[in-house]
Amino acid sequence: MSEPVLQVKNLKVYYYVEAGAVKAVDDVSFTLDFGVKMGLVGESGSGKSTMAFALMRMIKPPGKIESGQMILDGIDLLKLSEEKMRQTRLRKLAMIPQGAMNALNPVMRIDKQLIDGMLDHGVIMSKEEREARVAQLLEMVDLPPKVAKMYPHELSGGMQQRVTVAQSISMEPDVIIADEPTSALDVVIQRQVMETINRLQQRLGLSIILIGHDMGLMAQSVDRLAVMYAGKMMEIGETHAMFRDPLHPYTRLLIESLPVLENKGVFSGIPGITPSLLNPPEGCVFHTRCPKAWNLCQEATPEFVEIKPGRWVACHLHTA
Amino acid sequence: MSTPLLELRKVTKIFGGKRDYTVALDDMTLVLEEYFPKIIAVVGESGSGKTTTGMLLLGFYGPTMGQVLFRGRPLHELKGAELFRFRREVQAVFQDPFAVYNPFYKVDNLLSIPIKNFKLARSKAEARELMEDALERVGLRPEETLGRYPHQLSGGQRQRIAVARALLLKPKFLITDEPVSMVDASLRSTILKSLRALNQEFGVPILYITHDLTTAYHISDYIIILYHGSVMEAGNVDSIIRKPNHPYTKLLVSSIPWPDPDLPWGGTEEMIQKSQVAFKAITGCKFAPRCPYKMDICETKAPELFMPERDRVVACYLYRDHTVLPREELSSVFAQA
Amino acid sequence: MQRGQGFKGFLNYIRRNPAFGGGLLILLLLLLFSTVAGYFVPKEGAYPLFTTPKQKPSAEHPFGTDSVGRDLLPTLIYGTRMTLSIGMIAGCIGLGVGTVLGFMTGYFGGLFDTIVKFFVDVLMTIPSFLLLITISASVPNPEEMSVIQMALILSLVSWVQPTRAIRAQVLSMRERAFVMMAKLSGMSGMEIIIKELMPNLLPYLAISLAGAVNGGVLGSLGLQTLGIGNLREPSLGMTIYWLRYYNAFLQGYWWWIIEPVIVIAAIFIAFLLISIGLDEFANPRTRRTV
Amino acid sequence: MRIPLSYVFKRIGFLVAVLFTAATINFLIPKLAPRDPVQELVNQKIASGGLTSQGAAEFRDSLRKLYGLDKPLWQQYLTYIWNTMRFDLGYSIVNYPVRVDFIIGQTVFWTLGFVGTSTILAFLIGTVVGALVGWSKTSKWFSWLMPPLAAFSAVPAFIIALVLIYFLAFKLHAFPLRGGYSATIVKDWSSTEFLLDVAHHAILPALSMLLVSIGGWSLGMRSMMVTVEGQDYITFAEAKGLKGSRIFFRYALRNTLLPQVTSLAMQLGLIVSGASLVETMFSYPGIGNRLGAAIAALDYPVIYGIVFFLVVGIAVATLVVDLLYPLLDPRISYSGG
């Protein structure tokens, strides 16, 4: 097995509101190996976006990283100073944002936006070197060179998203966190952007965390898959294995609720509604909607354990 | 033949000014019959004109050219009782399950106002009963939903109330614009199931507007593929999804991310690369600039609707050996079983 | 946006929005000062030759007197009353016209909208104060102008801002999905304006009212300071006009200067606080206390 | 970036409309009012014993002829518009035969100097202060600046002027009480002594304007800054590991400047109105003070002339800001207007 590049251990992120603490990420642990694409999938309110911002250490009040460790290349990010963390962003840990439309500065030309991240990380370049670097970055994401002198609003949604991809690889980081990079795009464009990201991942040997809600997209693009529900990690495993044999009832129901060619006209969903993160249910957070719940599920929170190499699950069906 | 319930007759819709305009819908004719309890999906990417089609049929946009007819009368001429009948009989479910609620009022309003205005109940108690019945049908507990403000409910709950509203009104025609695209995956099927029930149990025809081919495949009987305001392919949904004819439909179908790692994105690499080309207003086939099978004729003249099989039409010169279906008769392919 | 219930909810809200509460309190005190105090202080004192001129504040004349023998206490009580009345009447007319025009043009559009929008745009470029000078300087016998006349003149310009603001809000709101839903539920255009749009625009209507009243007070004050309008009846603008006319600052009559300045400042600060508070209510996103 | 000519023409067309409207109002309002300025002037002269009744009639007729009042209304209107277009604003009644444009020429530079300087200074200071207060990463210390600045912004400048005159000029003798320069000094624009004297006189009026406007600009800037800070491009800029200063200047400040400049265009009228009253308070030899004097003397041609001139000035300044705006905002759509 390859080396882990990122290790998250017992991470807790809470939002403090008038009514109490919202446990957006509650005791989550996982490992990302070098050169691996891992999907982090969850529905709204599962804590997946909070996870993304926690990894970048960009949680804003009233949110707070309560405890845990995030070890990147042997360094605990939570122990870094503000300035050191700033230098870590982009250089070691970059982000591809959700909705590129709003993520680019509307009054700045693309080349300036591509270059300023490098400048603030101490890269010194002549004018020619800058132009060459911009052209190279654009080429890597299949954008024509003329994009450099354009403004964000002159680009289509897919092209804007490509610009943010180019931005994220500009300092050749170890890990890229892609936060629903294609959720606002049409299927064809979504496929193009994802294929661009995949190609770059292979070419540059990146490790990627792809955050999303679309199991279909995950099936198409990641090596490993992590499933979150109500702030908790439910299951982690190799993508094929997860789809072939989901261990957690939530994972199974989620996969079954998705339409495929063979089951036309079959509509099976997960009954009930997602619990409030302010007062999550006792025991397993999923027991209120779980068809296989038994009395232990209401009483004890299942441990998140590795039941076979590389396969982790938090469910009493498998651990009790 | 009786007057159809709703009809788009040679409708073109253009947005914007003299120089800076977009053709949202280009010479579209669509006849929607009253007693035809099927689900027709209108599928396209953003800018395809699919939402515009819905807005035109609901009378929220006026056509730039052509006519939108309700029972044979142009929508913009409807007044008084006729307009009232149109509102009563043609209903909609929209995409954003939050925006359809006036934040000032409780969610009850979405159900109680049409009951009151369309005089569906004789008493308060009867109205309440209607509302509770409809909510239960979509799997909601009335005591947990009525009396709440929209922000106190989840997106899935709000959208189910919107579907309950359609169930309660039992319109003659229902237009749904991306009803599940802003709802979590685990809740989508509940909503789709309710729509399907409304269609099958009460015989309400539905126009299902979406960008998502998979849900379109699952819920609908027929499909219309739009590209930049023009019909590319239309007909039986099973045949089209399983065996797309038009190069654009092929591109769309092969880009579906099926939730199955053993069923990877198909190889239409060349088209995928090409489809980055920006769209330009052209005289010929709209898809020509992206099409790998492009011929000279494609750039000069828009293709007719060719009919390779009885249950489908395709607007592509690759099929020009087949019979031509006049544009005005597009809806006739839906009558084929 | 959780709406509290009844008076308790209102108090609760005030606590979370101190700007609004503070502004309301100042305005309430000013209203009390200009109305209730009038029952104890006769109006005669607000005219010349009432008492000995140029007196510092004393037990007898707690606010002092001016150089022609007005007692400044009644002058300010009745002056505040008059100035606020002018502002409020002009503001209410302005908001009324603005609401009708704003909703009609914003919701229905069409030729009427094009015409109104053109006039609003033109009048936004022409400073309203200069327009007021032209108009009021041409009125016969400006020195006998009544409260109502003054307010009517001010309302010739006070409708412009509310119309513009409300129209913009209606324009942005009329495309919202809940308006489409209301149409589908069989509601008519007027019903939608009143039942669906109005409630959501209440904070904006309140902001417009505060702005229009503020503009009315400012306009009347400015005109009177320049010597246009009634300079005999007590008003705050009149006080400023005379203290300048008699060069109060060259004579060191500090009370004559400071007192109206404090009252005027209090009025405007009250309006500012109220509109900051209302703004916070309308856009909770930009919440941040001053 | 190049500004398209069509946009320029559109803005200029609007300017012409504004000026035409202003001129028409200027012409119509006195006609609508049941008031005869000429007769009033004649009465004044009679009352002061300067005229016999015989002479009065002649004087009145000659005045009427001079002002063109003997002609039909439409002719007067055309003449008026023609004269206005040539910037011929007529004669002062009180200081006959001094021309109104001469009066404007005498006073306008004083106003331009002190209003221009104070507006630019206030805009710059206010914008910087507001930006710092609104930016969450700056010291909390800055937020203490806000209440006093906000309070000043609410109060009209001429009211603040009163207080400044009393304390700084009368009590402390730090500044002159009134006027644009000392009566004892030789008026010579090339002498440093005179220029210093002028500056000394301008400080208090400018300070009154500054205190009021700085608060206004910083209030507006602060709330814009709070809004912009919530935008995704700021979050992404942080995720890029940019330095705080770059995010502040290039991302936040740059985007908040746009609405700030728009509001500068909108505020010009208010600023000039406010400055007119401040000039009156200080008897500053500017155009506003001259307007006040004309009002006191009921010198109508001067009142209307100055008002019209100020409208022209503001409309032109607004036009300039409008034309510069696209240079700041690359997104502006010219065709929309």
Features:
heterotetramer, B: 337 residues, alpha/beta, Rossmann fold, 9-stranded mixed beta sheet, 4-stranded antiparallel beta sheet, 13 strands, C: 290 residues, mainly alpha, MetI-like fold, 12 helices, 0% strand, disordered C terminus
Describe this structure in words.
The complex is a heterotetramer of chains A (320), B (337), C (290) and D (337). By secondary structure, chain B is an alpha/beta fold. Chain B has a domain at 6-220: 3-Layer(aba) Sandwich (Rossmann fold). Chain B has helices spanning 50-57, 80-89, 108-117, 124-137, 142-145, 155-169, 185-202, 213-219, 237-242, 247-254, 269-274, 296-300, 332-335, and strands at 6-16, 21-32, 39-43, 65-70, 73-74, 90-93, 173-177, 206-210, 222-227, 230-236, 305-309, 312-314, 323-325. In chain B, helix 6 runs parallel beside helix 7. Chain B starts with 5 loop residues before the first strand and ends with a helix. In chain B, 51% of the residues are buried. In chain C, helix 9 (189-225) packs antiparallel against helix 12. Chain C has 290 residues and is mostly helical. In chain D, helix 2 runs antiparallel to helix 3 (53-66) and helix 5 (100-134) runs parallel beside helix 12. Chains B and D meet through loops of B and loops of D.
Write the layout of secondary structure elements.
The complex is a heterotetramer of chains A (about 325), B (about 325), C (about 290) and D (about 325).
Chain A: E1 4-17, E2 20-33, E3 37-41, H1 48-55, E4 63-72, E5 75-76, H2 82-88, E6 93-96, H3 100-103, H4 110-119, H5 127-140, H6 157-168, E7 175-179, H7 187-204, E8 207-212, H8 215-221, E9 224-229, E10 232-238, H9 239-244, H10 249-256, H11 295-299, E11 305-308, E12 311-313, H12 316-319
Parallel strand pairs in A: 3-8, 3-9, 6-7, 7-8
Antiparallel strand pairs in A: 1-2, 1-4, 4-5, 9-10, 10-12, 11-12
Chain C: H1 6-16, H2 18-35, H3 72-108, H4 110-125, H5 128-138, H6 147-158, H7 160-174, H8 177-184, H9 189-225, H10 236-245, H11 248-251, H12 254-282
Helix pairs in contact in C: 2-3, 2-12, 3-4, 3-6, 3-7, 3-9, 3-10, 4-7, 5-6, 6-9, 7-9, 8-9, 9-10, 9-12, 10-12
Chain D: H1 5-32, H2 37-47, H3 53-66, H4 73-85, H5 100-134, H6 146-154, H7 157-171, H8 192-229, H9 232-239, H10 244-282, H11 287-297, H12 300-328
